[in-house]
Specification:
GO molecular function, one term: DNA-binding transcription factor activity
Distance between the termini: 32 Å
Number of helices: 11
Protein name: Transcriptional regulator, GntR family
Structural class: mainly alpha
CATH architecture of the largest domain: Up-down Bundle
Number of strands: 3
Pfam families: FCD, GntR
Shape: globular
Organism: Maledivibacter halophilus
Radius of gyration: 19 Å
InterPro entries: GntR_C (IPR011711), TF_FadR/GntR_C (IPR008920), Tscrpt_reg_HTH_GntR (IPR000524), WH-like_DNA-bd_sf (IPR036388), WH_DNA-bd_sf (IPR036390)
Strand order of the largest sheet: 1-3-2
Amino acid sequence: MENLFHEKKVNKSLTSMIFEKIREDILIGKYPSGEKIVEAKLAEEFGVSRTPVREALKQLELDGLVDNIPNRGVIVKGISSQDVEDIYTIRISIEAIAVKWAIAVKWAIDRMNDNDLQKLKDIYELMEFYTFKNDIDKIAELNTKFHETIYNATKSRYMEHVLKDFQYFMKTTRYRSLRSPGRVKNTLKEHKEILDAFIEKNKEEASKAIINHINNSRENARRTRVKTR
């Protein structure tokens, strides 16, 4: 495996980078629930000593993504069906606040500048392009960037931090959901409705569009889970 850490990222420790990489792999399903993660094997794959890997696994345990079980080792927990339900429910509440209650807290639409809006448009255009190509990986990546642009526009580091955490934990479900028939085109349509509301600076319609998108995503996630059981 290519050493991913030969160019150390600014302001990120080796442990943090390893933690993020393993977390990503768990959330996209590379390490399924119940699989054992071997510390020595990871250290060899990453081309590092076992110490930062061990620390990264401790962080993953704190995040609830793995369990360190005596006499068994580190076992992947992943994201359960109940976790998915909880995340969608909480996300609806928080993300809707980020666009709807601008009168009270001046977030999202009121704080979005021209650069933020242009970035949102650019991301949507790329989503259109990759939807035509049916490139699920790129669509999932752009989906995340689209919502993170909205989070950034709130100019609230606390709101941004919470919502970005939700994005991380939804990766497993998002990839599976986008592969179900018709979901890619519906997702594009839903993001167009969100974008149009932001262009028009219509807080009520933006809130409705986001809630509709999240509810549709949740229903699709439920259907795909049923089919894969």
